Amino acid sequence: MEFRAKNLGGIKVLTENNIPNEQNAEQQAPAAQAVEVTATPNAPVVETAHDDFDWSVDKRNVSSYSKEEKAKYDQTYENTFKVIEENGLLTGTVVGLTKTDVVINIGFKSDGLISLNEFRDIQGLKVGDDVEVLVVEKEDRDGNLHLSRKQARQQRAWEKIVEVYKTGEVVTGTVTSKTKGGLIVDVYGMETFLPGSQIDVKPVTDYDQFVSKTMEFKVVKVNEAIRNAVVSHKALIESDIEQQRVDIISKLEKGQVLEGTIKNITDFGAFIDLGGLDGLLYITDISWGRISHPSEVLQMDQKINVVVLDFDDEKKRISLGYKQLTPHPWDTLPAHITEGARVKGKVVNIEDYGAFLEILPGVEGLVHVSEISWASTPINAKEFFKLGEEYEAVVVTLSKDERKMSLSIKQLTEDPWATIETKFPLDSRHKGIVKNITPYGVFVELETGIGGMIHISDLSWIKRFNHPSEYTKVGSEIEVVILGIDKENRKLSLGHKQIEEDPWNTFETIFPIGSVHEGTVVKKDDKGATVQLQYGLEAYAPARHLRTEDEKPISVEDVKEFMIIEFDRSEKRILVSHTRVWEQAKNEEKEAVAKEKRADADKTRKAVKNIQSKVEKATLGDLGALAELREKLKKDEGDKKDGE
Question: What is the mean pLDDT of residues 95-107?
Fold first, then answer.
């Protein structure tokens, strides 16, 4: 096709040779790319003002097109453009490279620029290479085409991730960094999350060891709203393990011995990896002896042989045993362990009825509470024994068939009750330690295995106690007298007050009935009061005997005079009365007055008789004197009767 230059107001325009100038200008106007503005040196320049230009000049070589031809040319022109939509993926061609950007042609009216940083994964990028880009904006605020290769990669990666999530396909990714709770994995150029629990079937504590590693993953979760995906490496391992489990379980038999690796240790046992299938080794099946934690015998990652005790095909549970690979200790019990032999053992269990000593791993004997001490005093096994302590004992009974053994600690020493009468004869005096106190008495230990009880009534001759703790306490030393020996029941009757003579023989002479003594009220209740007399002796005053002369109440710590109204030596009881003291004083005072009056009356009578005996006969004067005397005597008699 040939072109010719036409001068339009000083501007030369290239046009097709066979197209009229007016028609050529009309067709070329819509597309800026089809117009080339140049200056032709050899062409004559007509200097004519644009507004004065005559467009009708020179109509030569002007051709017209039919509608069909025009439509054909329009279609050819339209086909030179691509349909561009924002957020769409297109393949573009590198048409230029700068120090910072890459120029991409996507067939649009203008080229796009993409930062060179988005091509760091491509080595040796050059002009002519095809790359996939995403149209961010056809025109930004500056009118430029905005493209992104990074977003194109992310879009394509997300589409692939969603696809493999639906199909379950395995993908390959690279761990790029560690984050809270897991790792970041690059899959198809997009960041995904790998939780720590999905790294491996075994617990993982060190995440750093996986950074920069390329591994296979399975997409287990996607969130299309925020374009987030979760991957798992553990799922691939479990799928392989599941197949191995099926193979292993199909070949399992009870009693079969397998080799496994300890993958986890808990308080109740250990989990053993049998090569894709886990079995549980309970703590009771680890050792014939008692252990408090599996770590006492086993270690993490240790390889051991175990025996299959039981398994469940449906639940895929396998119970394993470790101790069962060795003979039971009772079956190989040493010959020197027989009845009567002395053995040593460690306390492995304590119950209310006794303690279990482990003589050998898996061989235990029971020390009953009755076999701890020769003393009859009850012993609390949980207070006497401590876990882990070692004791020596004598084998009392032994049964290999029943795998039982009874032990005794007290039989390590001679029975002190065999010679009790010799060492602790009746009425002998000894010192002991208070071991226990009850409401009815005090238990005293004289020596190991020998002890007895002091009844509360045998603590003191003169004091009555509501509880023995008012007199002594546990751990105190006390002197006792042997009152009785019960060898069969291994009991001693002890007394403390018998250390001294019975003071009540003396008290009977000091506190006779009717005697008055000063006393202090030490305790008082509705029924009466306890009064302390001399020598620490206590008496009791009933309430009716506490009435005072001035009707004032008697209080605790008041000091008053009390009369002995009852003295019971056998019952060690004394009753006193304060009321009797002042009542008796009043009676004595009245008696003294009456006695004086009787004396005066007797004296008068004697005088009268004396006069009468001297008078031989009465005279008138004498009769008058006698009459006066008679009246006086009558008055005295009347006063006497009133006094009585």
Answer: 89
What pLDDT is attached to residue 423?
A: 87
For the chain, the residue count is: 644
Q: Which long-range contacts (CB under 8 A, 24 or more apart) does 18-27 make?
A: 18/61, 18/63, 19/62, 19/63, 20/59, 20/61, 20/62, 20/63, 20/64, 21/58, 21/62, 22/55, 22/62, 23/62, 23/63, 23/64, 23/65, 27/73
Rounded Cα distance, 175 and 185, in Å: 4
Q: How far is CA 611 from the centre of its chain?
A: 117
The bridge status of strand 354-360 relative to strand 130-137 is unpaired
| pTM of the predicted structure, to 2 decimals | 0.40
Q: Which amino acid is at 173?
A: G
In degrees and rounded to multiples of 5, residue 450 shows phi and psi of -120, 125
Alpha helix ranges (H) inside 479-553: 504-510
Cα distance between residue 270 and residue 298, in whole Å = 8
Q: In Å, how far are 392, 511, 563, 574 from 514, measured between CA atoms? A: 68, 8, 6, 12
pLDDT over threshold 90, residue 494: yes
Tell me what pLDDT residue 13 has. 41
End-to-end CA distance of the chain: 180
CB 292 within 8 A of CB 252: no
Q: Which two tokens stand for residue 167?
A: 């199909």
Say yes or no to pLDDT of 315 above 60: no
Distance from C-alpha of 264 to C-alpha of 477, rounded to nearest angstrom: 58
pLDDT at site 25: 40
Helix (H) or strand (E) holding 606, with range, is: helix 579-614
Per-residue pLDDT for 626 more than 70? no
Q: Are strands 182-187 and 130-137 parallel, antiparallel or unpaired?
A: unpaired
> Comparing C-alpha atoms, which of 273, 280, 263, 269 is closest to residue 315?
280
Beta bridge partners of 4: 15
Q: Residue written as tokens 């008290």?
A: 507
Among residues 457, 455, 433, the alpha carbon closest in space to that of 444 is found at 433
pLDDT at 201 over 90: no
Alpha-carbon separation of residue 390 from 353, 393, 413, 533, 580 (angstroms): 18, 10, 18, 57, 71
pLDDT tens for 537-566 read 888 999 888 888 888 888 888 888 899 888
**Neighbour-count burial of 497, counting CB atoms closer than 10 A to its CB (0-12 exposed, 13-18 middle, 19+ buried):** middle
pLDDT at 3: 40
Distance CA 357, CA 262 (A): 30
Query: For residue 263, with 0-12 CB atoms within 10 Å meaning exposed, 13-18 middle and 19 or more buried, which class applies?
Result: middle
Q: Name the helix (H) or strand (E) containing 382.
A: helix 381-384
3-state secondary structure 97-147: ECCCEEEEECCCCCCEEEEHHHHCCCCCCCCCCEEEEEEEECCCCCCCEEE
In this predicted structure, the answer to whether residue 640 has a pLDDT above a threshold of 60 is: no
The rounded distance, in Å, linking the Cα atoms of 215 and 197 is: 16
Q: For residues 557 and 519, give the distance between their C-alpha atoms in angstroms, rounded to a whole number.
A: 9
Residue 631 to residue 621: CA distance in whole angstroms: 16
How many other CB atoms are found less than 10 A from the CB of residue 496?
Answer: 20
